[in-house]
Write a structure and sequence with these properties.
five-stranded antiparallel β-sheet; Methylamine Dehydrogenase, Chain H; alpha+beta; five-stranded mixed β-sheet; WD40_repeat_dom_sf
């Protein structure tokens, strides 16, 4: 049975004024399944690593210029391609910083899209329907471009696929209420045009999706009345250039989705496999009005198999890569992992096959404890994967919700320990996020309930991240559970900068409040003294080691008080001195930041508070010391630069093999 798992935020959005303008033009897969290229609606292209939810690089065109189609990644040349102002093709590599200095060429006709399949050559589709391979186009950018479309005919959607080792550009158009499908085959170039059957008067498709299977190109399209149709075209039947003649395109109704009152305005349907469709912007059959959902429907059995409510406005945009759905909603671009196993009628109806007999299942349904369920099955030497999944789902639906929300602290801790002690914990990983969310929700609602050891165990599984349970760190700060904060900072790859600063403020506040009673004393005066004590240094080090973006972190650093800033800079100065005296400044086995990380934090704190620090008498000596640090670093780099050439010559010298047990060699450096 299909499933939607806990999602996470990839980035924020700046929506436009129109109903379907989320602020994103397009999302394209990059070099592997963990990287995507996001193009916004105005001037920027950003590369994201999905698992870290962090931007790796970003490129922007000048003010007054506009990106007019989504960027794509050419894996053959390891280059990005985008179009600005309809006619300017720009090409650049990862190491390029400024788009304006990268390669660009102006073509003679407006471009609709650039498409590029993994391992394939980019293809340019022009607004009037012509198609060119990118290399061929760039060999003569001003070459004349023919007009394929009729007057008043405009492209609405396009993609490209590989079928039988041949590349196809597929696009749909609209003209005076009629919709058409074009199939353009490359090498040899052929074009076929089809006319879609008309729906109710005035209704045009809201979205399209295409796939290739069993020697056929399958087109899926959704109408505002909730009808989802599929049309199938055989690749073998595609002949010569017959673009002028529009052939009728038969269709079959796959789904009749509920639309409530009125028609759909911003919705999308995407093929996931031969039996499943993801739909966004369509009401959930059993939910109230005014709620937007992401759903997975089984087209074979006409059943809704998974649904997730999406907060905020829905824009009718949906992308899918590597079993992940990318959906803009509100002011957020979310990533929702999904699974679509092969389904039978029983699984589609929610009645999974089970290896146990009906009597055994009835006996199991009467067992009131997780431990009996979990450990009772351990006696069996093996168990089919489907049955394991059934048991996991059974635990989740029958016991998990009830026990976590009602049981006392001791029982919850005991049951979770039993759950996490399973040998097949991988099968229960999807439950970890739900467990943590339930525990956090109950702890926030009930001041008397808190399970620190259980939450720490869940974090240690490394199946959690901040996006899955966004209130966990804030709960830990509220309960002053700094050990749990430390674990979250260490194991969560997606801590937002606002939360990082909240942790920093809380840790520094504890240092000031306790009077630094655990400050480390040194027997030798030259040895630098930790201004916060080793116990607090552990916490501050985790903040320094947390991933961040300068742009998003700087505004939150400005919220620190001058007292907090001075103490934090004193600690950064202490770490710097440790590096000056010791190449490996690990304080009693603590996790310590690198010298680069220390200097980056010093720079950011000074950027955020320099004016205040200059006016603060207590900070004068600190600023003087930091200034001397910078001068010493500049001097060191300058001296190293002077001997750089000599050191390079040493590397080139041939080492004598037979030097005996003892030798003296004089090397002259010029």
């Amino acid at each position: 049975m299909a499933a939607l798992y806990e999602g996470y935020t990839l980035c924020g959005l700046v929506p436009g004024q129109t109903l379907t303008n989320s602020g994103i033009q397009g999302i394209e897969a990059e070099r592997d399944s963990d990287h995507v290229v996001v193009t916004d609606s105005t001037r920027s292209v950003t590369l994201y690593k999905v698992s870290d939810q962090k931007p790796l690089s970003s490129w922007t065109v000048k003010q007054g210029q506009t990106l007019t189609c989504p960027a794509v990644y050419n894996s053959q040349t390891e280059e990005y391609v985008v179009v600005s102002d309809n006619k300017v093709i720009r090409i650049w590599k990862d190491e390029d910083i400024l788009l304006d200095k990268a390669f660009k060429a102006t073509v003679s006709s407006d471009v609709w899209r650039v498409h590029c399949l993994p391992g394939g050559e980019p293809v340019v589709l022009f607004q009037r329907g012509a198609v060119r391979l990118l290399d061929s186009l760039l060999s003569a950018p001003q070459q004349p471009i023919e007009e394929v479309l009729a007057q008043e005919e405009a492209i609405r959607w396009s993609t490209n696929i590989v079928a039988d080792s041949q590349q196809f550009v597929i696009f749909t158009t609209e003209q005076k209420g009629d919709s058409f499908l074009y199939l353009h085959r490359l090498n040899p170039n052929t074009l076929q045009r089809y006319r879609l059957e008309r729906e109710e008067p005035g209704l045009s498709p809201l979205s399209f999706s295409a796939s290739y299977r069993d020697k056929h190109i399958c087109l899926l399209y959704l109408y505002p009345n909730g009808h989802v149709y599929q049309s199938v075209v055989s690749v073998r039947g595609l002949g010569g250039d017959e673009g002028a003649q529009a052939l009728p395109l038969p269709r079959s109704l796959l789904l009749g989705l509920p639309v409530g009152e009125g028609l759909l305005e911003a919705a999308s349907a995407q093929l996931l496999d031969e039996a499943h469709v993801a739909v966004v912007g369509v009401p959930h059959p059993s939910a109230g009005a005014g709620k937007d959902f992401l759903c997975i429907w089984n087209t074979n059995f006409q059943t809704l198999q998974a649904g997730k409510e999406m907060a905020g406005k829905i824009y009718g945009q949906l992308w899918t890569f590597s079993n992940k759905l990318f959906i803009p909603h509100g002011k957020t671009l979310s990533v929702i992992p999904y699974e679509c196993p092969k389904s039978s009628l029983a699984s589609a109806l929610g009645k999974l096959k089970q290896a146990k007999t009906e009597g055994e299942l009835k006996q199991m349904s009467c067992v009131p404890s997780w431990n009996n369920i979990l450990h009772g099955d351990k006696a069996q030497p093996s168990r089919p994967a489907e049955t394991r999944k059934t048991v996991s789902n059974f635990i989740k639906t029958k016991y998990l919700n009830f026990s976590v929300q009602t049981a006392p602290v001791e029982e919850v801790q005991r049951e979770v320990e039993g759950l996490l002690s399973r040998a097949d914990i991988q099968d229960l990983q999807p439950l970890v996020g739900q467990l943590a969310s339930m525990l956090v929700s109950r702890s926030l609602a009930d001041p008397a309930f808190y399970t620190p050891s259980t939450l720490a165990q869940l974090v240690h599984t490394q199946s959690l991240c901040h996006s899955v349970c966004p209130d966990l760190v804030l709960l830990a700060l509220e309960r002053r559970d700094f050990f749990l904060c430390q674990l979250c900072l260490q194991f969560f790859p997606d801590i937002p900068e606002a939360v990082t600063c909240a942790c920093l403020k809380a840790f520094i506040r504890v240092v000031i409040k306790t009077g630094e009673e655990d400050k480390e004393k040194s027997s030798t005066p030259p040895e630098p003294i930790c201004p916060v004590g080793l116990h607090k240094a552990v916490l501050l080090n985790e903040v320094l080691l947390t991933a961040y973006s300068d742009t998003f972190l700087l505004p939150h650093l400005k919220d620190l008080s001058s007292q907090h800033v001075v103490l934090f800079l004193q600690y950064l100065q202490f770490l710097y001195l440790k590096y000056s005296q010791d190449a490996s400044p690990q304080m009693h086995g603590l996790r310590s930041p690198s010298l680069t990380q220390i200097m980056d934090w010093v720079c950011m704190v000074l950027d955020a508070h320099f004016t205040v620090l200059v006016m603060t008498p207590e900070a004068k000596g600190l600023l003087v010391n930091l200034h001397s640090f910078v001068k010493s670093q500049v001097r060191l780099v300058s001296e190293l630069g002077k001997i750089e050439g000599s050191l390079q010559e040493l590397n080139k010298m041939k080492v004598k093999k037979d030097v005996g047990q003892y030798s003296i060699e004089i090397i002259e450096l010029f």
